Amino acid sequence: MGQSFFPPYKSLEEIRQVQLEGLKWTVQHVYENSEFYRRRFDEQGVKPSDIQSLDDITKLPFTVTDDLRAGYPFPLRSVPFEQIVRIHASSGTTGKRKVLSYTQKDIDDWANMFARCFEIAGCTKEDRVQIAVGYGLWTAGAGFQAGVERFGAMAVPVGPGNIDIQIQMLVDLKTTVLCCTASMALLLAEEIEKRKLQNEIALQKVIFGAERSSDAMRKRIRKMLGVEHTFDIPGLTELYGPGTGLDCPKHEGIHYWADYYILEIIDPETLKPVPEGEVGEMVVTTLKKEAAPLVRYRTRDLTRLIPQPCSCGNVFPMHDRIMGRSDDMFIFRAVNIYPG
């Protein structure tokens, strides 16, 4: 075997020790270097020395989207400007975008996480990876490309849209891995079928991001494109971008890279942790991010932690696919209802 992008952790306990070290570092880092976080911690009455265990994370205040918009254009900045080598921003057509800064180490860490995604999906350096997502301010294209290159496969940076060019590359370059939204994959599958090109492509895997898709839709795409596996890749601009986890070929859940961030699941009404395995709002705390660290950032995305380990043997924990948004939740007869 070639290079592995997974550290040799033998148990979840080892990962939790790494998490504690990372949590202590992050809290100290932002307290010393971020005016926003120092003020927020002081208001909460918490100091870095108060963090002695992972359970102590609940002593820390939440960070929310409004905090990022209030800090525009460089929210949560925790390093000098001369250390910032790139920015990305959330999509959106109105109001202030959420702009996030990256140091070179942040970029390198992101590429390593992304390379893990290709490794756990069973890709090899022989693969040709067609990137059919947006570039520019959005994190997707840049993240996928950096991950492919770090992994060592061939990147085919087509970008979004343009069905004719997408199909030309699929046919002529014999692309083996396609990275796109589920709706783009379905559109391509329908057009390939319409043009009777099914025997002219060499696709083996499709990695979906950016939008939710049903089991029926994924099954239809697999059948039409003749691929065995479709994978789900979570992506959040505030948390580096896509590449922070992926489901393996067992498809029992999304392995997330818990040595880079802590994932809490809370009740969006009470803000308390939900029982393990129950659906709630995803809250993330970064452990190594330098330029714009997140401390208990409320993503508003709904998912659940999967208590049991994956049958693939990988020790990294899993969460379920994103099920909706806590913004859409309503209460019926004292029960939280999540549409969709």
Question: What is this structure, in a nutshell?
Answer:
By secondary structure, this protein is of the alpha+beta class. It is built from 8 helices and 19 strands. It has one domain (12-321): Rossmann fold.
Would you kindly provide a written description of the structure presented here, covering whatever features stand out?
The chain is α+β, with helices and mostly antiparallel strands. Helix 7 links the parallel strand 5 (about 175-180) and strand 6 (about 205-210). The protein starts with 11 loop residues before the first helix and ends with a strand. The protein has a five-stranded parallel beta sheet with strand order 4-3-5-6-7, sandwiched between helices. A four-stranded antiparallel beta sheet has the order 10-11-16-15, with helices on one face. The chain is globular and about 65 Å long. It has helices at about 10-35, 35-45, 65-70, 105-120, 140-150, 165-170, 180-195, 215-225; strands at about 85-90, 100, 130, 155, 175-180, 205-210, 230, 235, 240, 245, 255, 260-265, 280-285, 295-305, 305, 320, 325, 330, 335. It has a single domain, classed as ANL, N-terminal domain (Rossmann fold), CATH 3.40.50.12780. The chain is built from eight helices and 19 strands.
